[in-house]
């Protein structure tokens, strides 16, 4: 498969890993938009949020539990934003479900 995030999970492309288990993988964003900016991806290839089903929904729950743990470990104090884009018009550039976690500064709304 020619998926950037699948290659990162497989170790074919280096990343600054923060966390890994049998369900998901978390790593620092290479172009951070906040002092804390990391991504969490499922290890299973799910193309986007529109492909979340009853069968794979527990994966998303696990990812959010990991996000809560990592933001606590990173000292975010419960102040963070989780973003997932679905489709090109929404800004999704990699066809693999992923969640951006941003913290460490005031985050404006709407995001733009």
UniProtKB/TrEMBL annotation:
GO terms for molecular function: catalytic activity. Gene3D superfamilies: HIT-like (3.30.428.10). This is Histidine triad domain protein. InterPro entries: Histidine_triad_CS (IPR019808), Histidine_triad_HIT (IPR001310), HIT-like (IPR011146), HIT-like_sf (IPR036265). Residues 4-112 form the HIT domain. The active site is at residue 98. It comes from the Bacteria. A motif (Histidine triad motif) lies at residues 96-100. It holds the Pfam family HIT. SUPFAM superfamilies: HIT-like.
